[in-house]
Structure to design on (523 residues):
């Protein structure tokens, strides 16, 4: 079970944004779903990896990619061939 | 002489399309001049692709998905992009940011989801073919509710290159049509190896359906007729199974005990993968722009709060929680074990039988706005998620009605035996027609 403070923390981790007014409903829905997930707790954790999974490797070769202009086409915030994003420092 | 075009301006009374292409160009090929509707999470160069979300409003992909490339080369005309639950997260198409799609069989009811727009466009006769994507039933559910045919191919049979990722390990693009023959023709075009999707296999589908279930063994898991399945739906599906029996199949009851865990495992895995996949939607490279003058954390949180609908935010948060340290072992690790249990159940059953059959959905399409509780909505996916967890092919073929609303017969097969699954559906379709 999680409380409103924890849901707020998860929203913060996920950068998803949550308003105070939404917390109660999200929390109760969360708890109903987590309660349903409890069934998984009856399972013992496996001690081995899934044997059907394997990696697919390829040579690390240079191949053509999209032109820079095409990549920048979908933003209005660009500068000298780069994306402009919020300040991180 | 210019490129030929297909004129397309349907009366879209069901809100099936988010975008239409009035004069869609096409070339020579096996599908020459045939209109195909494409789910809005499949990239189409030059045609807006929103995934049913405000966060991608106005986004025009600079490249085509592999399947779109194949369709164009086969002569198909891409006539439009279909409505869907935002990023594929829903089972009714009510989670679209652009309003729900209505069920052509009864516009007061949901068409199912998340490929509800594709199903409605096909069911209403606006197109003969559509592409959907199926992460936990998103092709088969709307096919069942709208009375059309829909296939979730074996994982690895159709390239996901250009499919906007929601849950990579579960989802496949697949064909939707009114007849098994049309569906098969579309599958021929879209399947095959693609070096840009390392999970595809060199297993192209080159098949023409023929009626052949004589001598086949069809397993019926008792869990598919268990609690929560509308007895009227169960009865229609049993009648359909008896048609396969009349055509020469042997019906054997079996059991899939991992069904106890399948739905919970599915929702843990898909939300976990979604929390990572959807991190890219931040308003920097596409979609309505992020506010660049705010501190980054605040800016992204606000952009994503406004851009995503409630179900997407719920699933991203659930996935973030399930993967967070302290809870990873309790949820994600256990879900992976449950997933192996589901695969093991399929392997065991497929040692005894050739096909597995049951209902696609526990009920028929319900009224719009009826299911508002997220968990109640998740529970409707119980019969479709096992095929995604195990990667096996699964088809839904219309098999009758309950109070005027269509019921789907679900047929599943061994991995890479999509041909066999399609043949069984074809046998049923032809058996009923004669």
């Amino acid at each position: 079970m999680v409380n409103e403070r924890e849901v707020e923390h998860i929203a913060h981790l996920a950068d998803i944004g949550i308003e105070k007014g939404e917390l109660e409903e999200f929390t109760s829905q969360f708890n109903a779903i987590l309660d349903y997930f409890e069934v998984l707790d009856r399972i013992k954790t496996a001690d081995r990896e899934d044997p059907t999974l394997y990696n697919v490797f390829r040579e690390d070769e240079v191949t053509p990619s999209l032109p820079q202009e095409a990549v920048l086409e979908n933003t209005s915030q660009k500068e000298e061939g780069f994306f402009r994003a919020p300040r991180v420092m | 002489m210019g490129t030929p075009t297909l004129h397309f301006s349907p009366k879209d009374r069901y809100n099936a399309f988010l975008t239409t292409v009035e004069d869609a160009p096409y070339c020579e090929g096996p599908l020459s001049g045939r209109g195909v509707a494409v789910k809005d999470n499949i990239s189409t160069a030059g045609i807006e692709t929103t995934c049913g979300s405000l966060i991608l409003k106005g986004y025009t992909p600079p490249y085509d998905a592999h399947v779109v490339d194949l369709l164009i080369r086969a002569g198909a005309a891409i006539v439009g992009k279909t409505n869907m639950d935002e990023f594929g997260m829903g089972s009714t198409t009510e989670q679209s940011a652009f309003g729900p799609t209505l069920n052509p069989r009864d516009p007061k009811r949901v068409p199912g989801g998340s490929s509800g727009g594709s199903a409605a466009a096909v069911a209403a006769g606006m197109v003969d073919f559509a592409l959907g994507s199926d992460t936990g039933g998103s092709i088969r559910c709307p096919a069942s509710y709208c009375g059309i045919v829909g296939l979730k191919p074996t994982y690895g049979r159709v390239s996901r290159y250009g499919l906007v990722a929601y849950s990579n390990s579960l989802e496949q693009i697949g064909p939707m049509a009114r007849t098994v023959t049309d569906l098969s023709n579309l599958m021929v075009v879209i399947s095959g190896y693609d070096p840009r999707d390392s999970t595809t296999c060199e297993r192209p589908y080159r098949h023409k359906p023929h009626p052949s279930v004589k001598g086949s063994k069809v397993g019926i898991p008792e869990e598919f007729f268990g609690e929560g399945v509308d007895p009227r739906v169960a009865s229609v599906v049993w009648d359909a199974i008896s048609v396969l029996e009349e055509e020469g199949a042997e019906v054997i009851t079996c059991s899939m005990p991992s069904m106890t865990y399948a739905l919970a495992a599915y929702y843990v895995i898909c939300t976990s993968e979604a929390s990572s996949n959807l991190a890219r939607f931040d308003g920097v490279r596409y979609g309505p722009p992020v506010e660049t003058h705010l501190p980054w954390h605040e800016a992204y949180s606000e952009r994503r709060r406004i851009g995503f609908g409630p179900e997407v935010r719920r699933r991203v948060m659930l996935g973030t929680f399930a993967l967070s340290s302290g809870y990873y072992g309790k949820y994600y690790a256990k879900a992976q074990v449950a997933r192996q249990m589901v695969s093991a159940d399929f392997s065991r059953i497929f040692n005894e039988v050739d096909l597995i059959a049951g209902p696609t959905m526990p009920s028929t399409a319900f009224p719009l706005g009826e299911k508002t509780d997220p968990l109640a909505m998740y529970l409707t996916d119980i019969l479709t998620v096992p095929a995604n967890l195990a990667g096996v092919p699964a088809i839904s073929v219309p098999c009758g009605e309950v109070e005027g609303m269509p019921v789907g017969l679900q047929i599943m097969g061994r991995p890479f035996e999509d041909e066999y699954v399609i043949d069984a559906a074809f046998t049923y379709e032809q058996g009923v027609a004669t």
Residues 46 and 52 of chain A are 14 Å apart (CA to CA). The mean pLDDT of chain A is 92.
